[in-house]
Structure prediction request, 213 residues.
Amino acid sequence: MRMMRRASYDAPMTMIAIPHLSLVAALAMSVAGSFFQPANAASGAARLTICHGYGCAFRARLDLGPADARRLAAILSAGRASPAAERAAIAKAVSYFEKRAQQVTGVRDQPKSEFGASKIKGQMDCVDESTNTDALLRYLQGRGLLKHHKVQSRTSRGFLLDGRYPHWTAVVSSPDGVKWAVDSWYAPMGGAPDILPLNEWKQRGVLESGALD
Prediction:
C-alpha cells in the first residue's frame, strides 16, 4: 500500500460498532444526506465528500475546481454520440475522480475489501465506493454532462443467507429504461469501474472458495 500525503480533513462518523460484513447493508442505509454541494454554474467548482474507512467511517473534503470541471467536461464530451459511448466516458470520469480523491485521503485504496481493514483511513468498502461514485454522478448530472443517462438511487445485492455478502453500487439508467450498475469496488483506486446491466450485476457475488465474485 503506497502512502501519500495525509488528508487535509478527516472526520470520524459517530456510529455503533457492529460487525462490518454481516451488517454492511445497515451501514449503507445509515449513510444519508448530500455528499456534494451543487456546482458553481459559471466555474463548475463544487465540494464533494469522500467516504473511506469502511461504512463511511471517515469523510474527507474534495474541492473540484475549474480545472477539474473542464477535465470532466472534456471526458464526458467524448460520450455524446450514444449511451454506450457515454458509459465508456463515465468509466473514465470515475477513474479521474478516484485519482483526485486519493489526493485528499492520502492513500491508494486497494481493490475489493480486506477483512480487518475497517476503520483504516483511505481504504474503501462497497458502501464508501458506491457513495463516492454516486456523488460524482450527481455532480456530472447537475452540470448537464450526462446526455444519455439519469442517476438512480444506489442499490444492493446479497443478504448472506443466499450465499452472498451484501454489496452496494451506484446506478444510472439509459433512455431505453435499462438500469446500469457503476461499481468501482473491484478495481484499485483510479481503475475503471465495472459498468454492466443492473439485472446482470444482481446475479453476481456468489461466494466461491471463500472469495468474493
Q: What stands out?
A: The chain has a mean pLDDT of 79.
